[in-house]
Structures are given as C-alpha cells and as structure tokens.
Sequence to fold (127 residues):
Amino acid sequence: MSPRTWIIIGAVFGALAVGIGAFGAHGLKDRLAASGRGEVYETAARYQMYHALALVLVGLLALHGSSPCLNIAGTCFVAGIVVFSGLLYALALGGPKILGAIVPLGGTAFIAGWVALAIAAVFVTKK
Fold:
C-alpha cells in the first residue's frame, strides 16, 4: 500500500478513536457505568488511538524507504484495531461474552505489527 494510504487510514482511525471515546464518555456514560464496562470501552478507544498513530508512523517510514514488513505491520495494526478494539466495544455494549475469547487474536495482531515495524525499521531500503 502507498505511504499516503497508511497515513490516511491511521488518521481516520485516530479521528474515530476520539469520536468513539467522546461518545462513550458522554453519550454512553450512564449505560457503561451501570454495566461496569466503562473501563473496557476506554481500553478499546485507547488501543485504537495508539495503533492509529502506529499506522501514521508506518506511512511516514514508507515515505523514506520500502520494506514488505511495513505493509505487514500496517495490515496487522488494522486487523488488531478491528478485532481487539472492535470486539471490546461490542463487549462493553453488551455483546455476547464469547467475543472475549476472540479479543486476544487482535492483541496478537498488534504484537505482530510492532515486530514487523521493528524489522522494517532495521531493513528498510531507501527510495
């Protein structure tokens, strides 16, 4: 994927993290407090933002050089956001508890993304 695309995807996920987090803090405050799942929701938004920034970093690194590991890192970060954060949002809003068994796959994708990013940073070839 192009560097610009990674930056755009990261920026969109970052904007969504802010919006979703604000909605949870204000629009869903009573519901999340009543269910005791506010912390789960906050964790989802926080990890989404961390990895949105990581996607922007992937794009910025790709502006300076190329490595297949950059695309792997970006793909893993997107998958992690969708699975980890997405399922935590669902759980916080009352989704079936079985989703909790899938959440660690998103965490694994995040870890794989960071490893791929580290490898890319070492082996990136300048444009």
